[in-house]
């Protein structure tokens, strides 16, 4: 008789390349706290390796995480590695991997981005880096954290985008690598700070970048950096 998925036991050891991916997950999670994008353990980070998703555990300070603390699930959310409980925001991470070609996800409670999420339905195109996220960043409808409802709202806001804001909550950004997802997260927080600063000037209205210029910026950004 075939053993049911619900009785499968977590694998006891990390194997390569899961070990490398876990190291990157922990490093990125620590960067979110070091750069002030989260407070304590309020954010979460994940990376996909094939059909396995390595994700930060719930409620564990990132500076305490080591190789023995690795947590992984399959795309159905069944735990396949580790004994620590996965982040409560696992539904959001899995939804991204099911609906996009992302290999990494970073979720934060960044201050300026969270503030913007309470004010507008979309972050206006205040800077050309808006193009790096696919266009003006939408705000997902509010839903309780850790729920399928929040994951569904997030996916709608991420349509044709690599990042979104979560109403009264924070940010979700994905990328082909953890470095890319983190960089996009930092850029989103910076753009939110710029927009909040600009709209705070009495009697002045910020200029915005029109759609045709955003498309030109997107084309140019696609060749940014060093070859290869």
TrEMBL record:
Domain Class II aldolase/adducin N-terminal per the UniProt entry, residue ranges: 23-196
Keyword Metal-binding: yes
Name this protein carries in UniProt: Class II aldolase/adducin family protein
Alphabetized SMART domains for the sequence: Aldolase_II
Keywords: Lyase, Metal-binding
Gene3D superfamilies, per the entry: Class II aldolase/adducin N-terminal domain (3.40.225.10)
Keyword field contains GTP-binding: no
Alphabetical list of InterPro entries matching this protein: Aldolase_class_II_sugar_metab, Aldolase_II/adducin_N, Aldolase_II/adducin_N_sf
Pfam families found in the cross-reference section: Aldolase_II
């Amino acid at each position: 008789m075939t053993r049911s998925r619900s009785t499968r036991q977590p694998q006891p050891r990390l194997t390569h390349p899961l070990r490398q991916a876990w190291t990157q997950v922990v490093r990125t999670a620590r960067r979110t706290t070091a750069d002030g994008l989260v407070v304590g353990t309020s954010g979460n980070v994940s990376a996909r390796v094939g059909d396995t998703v390595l994700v930060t555990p719930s409620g564990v300070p990132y500076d305490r995480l080591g190789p023995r603390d690795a947590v992984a699930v399959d795309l159905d959310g069944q735990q396949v590695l580790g004994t620590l409980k996965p982040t409560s925001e696992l539904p959001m991470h899995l939804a991204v991997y099911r609906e996009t070609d992302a290999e990494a996800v970073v979720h934060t409670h960044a201050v300026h981005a969270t503030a913007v999420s309470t004010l507008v339905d979309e972050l206006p195109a205040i800077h050309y880096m808006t193009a790096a996220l696919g266009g003006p960043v939408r705000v997902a409808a509010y839903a309780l954290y850790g729920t399928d409802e929040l994951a569904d709202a997030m996916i709608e806001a991420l349509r044709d985008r690599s990042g979104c804001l979560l109403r009264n909550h924070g940010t979700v950004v994905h990328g082909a690598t953890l470095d890319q997802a983190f960089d996009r997260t930092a850029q989103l927080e910076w753009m939110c700070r710029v927009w909040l600063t600009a709209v705070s000037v009495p009697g002045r209205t910020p200029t915005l970048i029109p759609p045709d210029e955003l498309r030109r910026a997107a084309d140019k950004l696609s060749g940014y950096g060093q070859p290869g």
